[in-house]
Design goal:
Shape of chain B: elongated
Number of helices of chain A: 16
Radius of gyration of chain B: 22 Å
Number of helices of chain B: 4
Strand content of chain B: under 5%
Structural class of chain B: mainly alpha
Largest interface: A-B, 36 and 31 residues
Number of domains of chain A: 1
Distance between the termini of chain B: 32 Å
Helix content of chain A: 55-70%
Largest sheet of chain B: none
Distance between the termini of chain A: 49 Å
Structural class of chain A: mainly alpha
Number of domains of chain B: 1
Helix content of chain B: 55-70%
Order of helices and strands of chain B: HHHH
Order of helices and strands of chain A: HHHHEEHHHHHHHHHHHH
Oligomer: heterotrimer
Strand content of chain A: under 5%
Number of strands of chain B: 0
Radius of gyration of chain A: 21 Å
Number of strands of chain A: 2
Chain lengths: ~375, ~80, ~100
Amino acid sequence: MKKLFVNMRYLIVPAMSVITILGLLSGGNYVWTGVILFGLCAVIDTATKNIHLRADFDENGNSYGIKFFQYGVMYLMLVVFIALQLALAWKIYQYVNVTPFNVVNAYGLTIQNGITTTNLIGAVISAGLWAGIGIIYGHELSHNKKEGFFISRLIMSLSGASHFTYAHVYQHHLDLAHEDDPATAPRGRNVYMHTWLSHAGQGKFSFELEKSRLKRQGKSFLSLDNRWILGYLYSLPSIILFVWAGGLFVGLLALLTLWLIANFELEALNYMGHYGLIREKGKPVEYRHSWDNDSVFTDWFFIAIGRQADHHVRGETYFWELDDVKGPNYGIGYFSLFLITLIPPLFRSYMKKHLDNWDSKYATVEERKIAKQYGY
Amino acid sequence: MRQSTFLALLLVSLWTSLIAFALYSFDAHLHYRELTWAISIGLVLIITHMVNMTIYFKVRGNKPYSWNKYKKQFDSLKEFSERKI
Amino acid sequence: MFNIFKKKDLKFNVRLEPSNKEIVLKVGENLLTVALAQGIKWPHKCRVGSCGTCKCKVLEGEVKPEIDFGNVLSPEQIKQGFVLACKSSPKTDLKILIDLK
């Protein structure tokens, strides 16, 4: 029973993603389902912020997680996120075609054809919010199994961020909490600026990685061996779909909005995970170089991505085995913190006590010297 | 705005506008429902995006990612050394 | 993925040279994780297969790579049998060359 519970509790995102798709397909005001679910998650996350659970192991020290099942779910999520884009593209198609409003019943679903401008906006936001959550699977799969790495690239390519898979493993994990890591936000930077700089910085890493790798191999940068270029080509089907469905204005605008929301969520996670933390170059990554957000709902929803401290020290560990390691902890969940980050002055004010605490209780002498340079 | 930021934005805008004008000239906005047109437009757009990112990398270099801009400008060394943690 | 069809309690002996130390791993267990848990001071840093610090040479046996080693190890090193311990699990009993100093 415990084994069943431990494995099923990580199905919140798959379930809500499917409900969002059904909302898009149902049409009418149901297209806002994704937005409503996101809001509901924020409420649940805030309400359960004080509940923290440890990782679950049996009396023999074996994890309850079933690797085959969890990986199966993660691989299937690629299909779910593709379906999400297809559902949105279908509504865009109806909008551009000015499909008359009518109600049909199909496959047990009551479908409202046609869509208003307001509801199209709702559909795009719904899809964008849940497409962005795909990061949790893109992230986990980037760390394990060769075929998983490829699936991670494909999931991230649905949001135009295929470079993430390489940058996360080969840059972020090495340069964490240092200026060399674009995914680590320094003290004083807001989440909006960080979204662009982290996205571009990781893209730049991927660009430079390929440039040097292909040069070593005597191959041209402009070739299909270039994984930076390939990453963008993986995004081509999404672009073709939205262009075909909605044209160069509506279709493209919808896709760009979806990508913007999704990438904002991805970089907000990076932002929250390491904001303001400092590590001396060359020193090992330790628990104190990451922020944990591991209240129960955050932990189950984000498949333990909030256990950043343990993840960065034990990068080979499966998500269901990551634990609370008493590292720096925000004490609230990701949804709650995400809402705070949206208002930079509020976030800075909120972070002051956390950073002061980090400086005095976690930082080394050298790290404190570096921290002193920031007028926080 | 820094000079290199302005230059990067200018070049990106020019390149994107050029592509947009080219697509408009070829009536791409009228043919997007034909599959070969949709694929071609998609290719053009992704190449445009890659060129834009390359322009940004080349023009801005490592400057945007520097943490220096967030360091406090202390009025004096005395103030720096007295700053309490 | 197809490890589900193997017996979960199947064990593999891993002998480390030149230290002559021995560790035992179960199917699917990570080489570096188990070595560290058993007190072996295996050189490591990132534990995600991106730095190469944990690399070792497989003298006998076969490992299952969890990622593409080619992103960190050169083709020559891979040909010589080098693997990244943080992203390897045993497929057979192993004899491994690793400098533990």
